[in-house]
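@channel sequence for tomorrow's demo:
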Amino acid sequence: MKPARHHVESLDAFRGATVAAMIVVNNPGDWTAVYPQLMHASWNGCTFADLVFPCFIFIMGFAMPLAFSRRRERGESRSRLYGRVALRAAALVALGLVLNLAAAWRSPLSLRIPGVLQRIAVVYLVASFIVLRAKAPTWAITAILLLFAHWALLVLVPFDSYPAGALTREHSLAGDIDRLVFGRHMLSPFGDPEGILGTMTAVATALLGCVAGRFVQRTSSDRAKVFGLAASGIALVVCGIAWSRVLPLNKPLWTASYALVASGVAASTFAAFYFIVDANGFRRPFRPMVWLGVNPLAIYFLSELVGHAIEQGLVVQGSQVTTAKAWLFWRMFVPYAGDATPAASLGFAFAYGALCLGVAGALYRRGLRIHV
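structure tokens (generated this afternoon):
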């Protein structure tokens, strides 16, 4: 019997591609000129931008059984793994708060508490505990229970003075919980897209990734891996779309229907990556994505930190003060497009992403892997 695999190069490539997409989506040259698919849906609905973060969560889950098996084979105890997981989660929360402080440095009293790295930390902590304590069938059952529990809470529990089932931007159980816990320390007065209730379905997304990771780890045939991932991904998308007839696709709430669709897209996309990179050995064109994929959160943190820095008013033009980002965009990109078009805005995002890719490449060539 073929030994279980604990490293899949296509996983690094796919993870790097999601980080690249996150950087491009988060750093347009001008937020008023962005292609619609690179903007998050205003409330209900799903765009390309809405699929990037859950793909990363799915990948994080996919990597868990591989990483934990590798460490267990090296002789690490379960208690040591728990400690490692807890330290990493704490570090991610701290880094997330640093990013939020950088974004709110002019008004630190309005510091946002939730965030992308904070959600990754909590999901990683909870999913890791489940993976280390239970078998793969339990991971799938837990994911299903979390999806249905989240749905039931949203549609069956009344809150404040509103009836059960209110799912508007201004009024939802998720937003009400966030207001009670975080007060004004949220992205929006009505709630936070990385709020408390949505963490349930984000954990379910990670657990579905864990199931996929275990399947790839234990399956010997490349053909079976590709078809299994693709088929399960399509099935998840179909189930999610069917569920969306009664529970809308909604990223800020991370509804169960959205979690299924996003997980299905992630599984199917990874099937394509695996087929190209691992099954057929077509690695060279994907090498830059691997650079990003081996240090994903470090590069993401750096891109967000520098992004916040260049959006501050630091450049003097005559009697006006503008931001470094605006100065770069209007001086170096707009002249070629003739105006602040979506193409110029995307060009800035690609250029910024290329700089981040260069940093990732330098770290990769020096064999540096920053574990955050």
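heads up for whoever presents: The chain has a mean pLDDT of 93.
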